[in-house]
């Protein structure tokens, strides 16, 4: 457990100093620092083994009671947060509450008390053991990519609940932000999600911390609260005191300490421009995604977890273009059955109020790993190269009950609104035919049982994310009712550059003409076979790339909800003729750099109203 200690006092340097941290929530702020130090944690005798287990159990139960009451008070504050903040912190509080219930954590702590340990020591050891287990599961490869992010988050949750219990056992106080002056910039060594939930966004201009990262709950919450924030600004606390003047840029990650009058004047211009931009992006929400030449496109949202749903509504997205159902299999020891899955899909479909929801059946394998699936013997079969092994539809066709359960749950929920079903990692027509047979059989079985499901069945589509699928898109389009291009994997497989490997990032370029030619083939095949084609890889959220993608023939895009307004702004300024011209040039370009230079020049020429 990382204890926060006060740093030894150093004399801050005079004059302007620039630090660089991780920008986690956009916006620019200028103001005075309010430094929130954390009370030192209690010192705990970890070696004692002579405590009375009964007495320590009672202390533990009292501390759990106090912790539950505190979480309840935090929950009561939820109504004061914006909608997406409510969802983020609400589900986090639920996780904490479950941990304090009859959980593995509680059983582990109580077992340690039987050995005469002090309750504080038992809590610290058990939460640290569980956190370490998350980060480095014994006998299994360490989690990678998105799994590593989820594991770090889960480890943080164990440590956080451990800290709360230890504070309640020892009566150590929490810090409070209620006394901070209006308009202050909150400066701290670190900020935990429960702390962030206590911040009143109307009173705090920005947040800067010395530690933290962009993918944790704190970052997500600060984004949801709309507070400009930079985390991991190393060297911050050695330089900043109470009322030190700061400029915080949550877009670039810059923190400017004691800005000169010229820097402060420039920052004030940025603050005003950012406020105008937010207003303008907000207005865009209700406007159509129409090119300046008149053609209307579709912008939808990708959803990783249901908690992101309110952001989808706020973004103005016209439905969910990709629901990655992997979340159902993460952080769980048991496979979600048909009822549980239906109960998750149903509110998502209802919330979209008539806009389509595209549910992709689980794309497991490659760099993704699941406790629930490994437990029943499904997962990496020792593939030499998991990205080229049994993943996506290949895995589902080997473990058909998994696919059958998911199809059945989706079909049961599909009466609530328009649904589309998507197959991942397709590389051949046989896979689509096999999956379609199962889909039809599950449909017949449900009808025989008297379950009401849509007739005809919801469209069954395929991801185009292998070069084979792109090259064969005209054939595959005869078997699938829609095509969704996954540029994340398509780029990886086309350029033989792992999407998660840092040493080949320079080679991993979705704007490489080789990738663009595959996109063009897919869009052409969709047009010829009259099948809708969408693009749901990260490239869809890049305003620079979208005019080119339109020129290549893509008319529907799905991206993280937060990207929708900016992409829409670019679309509304672009013209179809220009898009087509750029596509012709890009297909003849020699490399991605040449394409990027052309797109940058075009973006520069587009004038966005309100850009100033
Ligand atoms: C893709 O590969 O582009 C895609 C959308 O799927 P994922 O990122 O989930 O692999
Ligand atoms: Mg993919």
UniProtKB/TrEMBL annotation:
Name a GO CC annotation attached to this entry: cytoplasm
Instruction: Give the molecular function GO annotations.
Output: kinase activity; metal ion binding; phosphoenolpyruvate-protein phosphotransferase activity
Q: Per the database record, which ranges form the PEP-utilising enzyme C-terminal domain?
A: 281-574
A Pfam family this chain is assigned to? PEP-utilizers_C
Cellular localisation: Cytoplasm
Where Mg(2+) binds, per the record, is at 465, 489
**Domain annotation Phosphotransferase system enzyme I N-terminal: ranges:** 20-134
Q: What is its EC number?
A: 2.7.3.9
**What residues does phosphoenolpyruvate bind to?**
324, 360, 488-489, 499
Where do the coiled-coil regions begin and end?
none
Q: Where is this region: Disordered?
A: 1-21
Q: Say what the protein does.
A: General (non sugar-specific) component of the phosphoenolpyruvate-dependent sugar phosphotransferase system (sugar PTS). This major carbohydrate active-transport system catalyzes the phosphorylation of incoming sugar substrates concomitantly with their translocation across the cell membrane. Enzyme I transfers the phosphoryl group from phosphoenolpyruvate (PEP) to the phosphoryl carrier protein (HPr).
What's the name of the protein?
Phosphoenolpyruvate-protein phosphotransferase
